[in-house]
Amino acid sequence: MSLRSILLTVTRTIGVALALPLGLVCAGAALAAQGGRWSASLDALAHFAPFWLAGALGVAAAGVVLARGVLRGVLVVLGLVGALAAGSLMAPEYLRDAGPHADAKAPLQLKLLQFNVWWFNADVERTADWIAAQNADVIVLEEARASFRDAMLRRGRYHVSCDGCSVTILTRAQPVAWGGLPGPWPSPAMTYVTFATAQGPFTVFGVHLSWPTSNGLQQRQGVNLGKVLSTYPHSSLIVSGDFNSTPWSFTRRRMDRDLGLIRRTRGVFSWPARDVTGKVAKVPFPFLPIDHVYAGREWRTVSVKRGPRLGSDHYPVIVTLARDPATGRRRPSR
Prior knowledge:
The protein has 9 helices and 12 strands. A hairpin with a 6-residue loop joins strand 6 and strand 7 (202-208). The longest helix has 31 residues, at 3-33. It is 39% helix and 20% strand. The chain has helices at 3-33, 40-46, 49-66, 69-95, 124-133, 146-153, 217-229, 250-259, 325-329, and strands spanning 109-116, 138-142, 159-161, 167-171, 177-180, 189-195, 202-208, 238-242, 262-263, 291-295, 299-306, 317-323.
């Protein structure tokens, strides 16, 4: 047997040996994640659906290329089962209605910047420079320290709402009402601003929910957030924040339904921007979309963009909306 044949056999053996447990993990996790409909613990697996999908497809490919006989069939079936289970979690995000749209020249536009700037932001000055350069009308910040607020105030004349809160909103226009708004326990951290305009008042909420690993706390926070928001006119309402949950989780789907608003961000991967172990090394790309912006039907979406990697562990998200009160009065098409 030639050296080339030996190396090929070894490669195939190792590849199959690795692919089999990977296939079991990906298919098992993707199938178990379907139980997130009923269990918060199982729903935590749904957040990682892109991993299960990529791993399962890799296993199926390894089965075709590396395996022979029964093992080939086993790996291909495992891969397809995992891919179908994971794909069924992700597909609704890309098939859903993301709300009415407007072109770049639409009147009455509002530019909103959503950003968890992180308590341990490694580059406050550069981050503040970039935010100020966006010239956003409303800036929703989570985990903004006093030093970060001061850095922003050195760069522009902003109205600060809920100064010192874990969610701070900076605005260029003076709101007519603002502040932190505690809801029933347990509620997420939240801050609001209300503006008076010729088209009627509208309110923007900034929120920050707990991690999905907190034994159902995030789910209870979502329910209580819905109760607070139910007291505000929904057609003109905007809600922005770090929700710490992905669109393929059943928690996020239930919250989308219960909030009665349209989530304008569609699969915008925003975390992590830094190494998940807390080191200063950077991960090559974000793999969880957990920062979201919702708006009522009076708002048409002009654009949704992800910002660059800065000093935070999140990427910023910039959403531009155009207000059209007539859109809010029309019934959505079915």
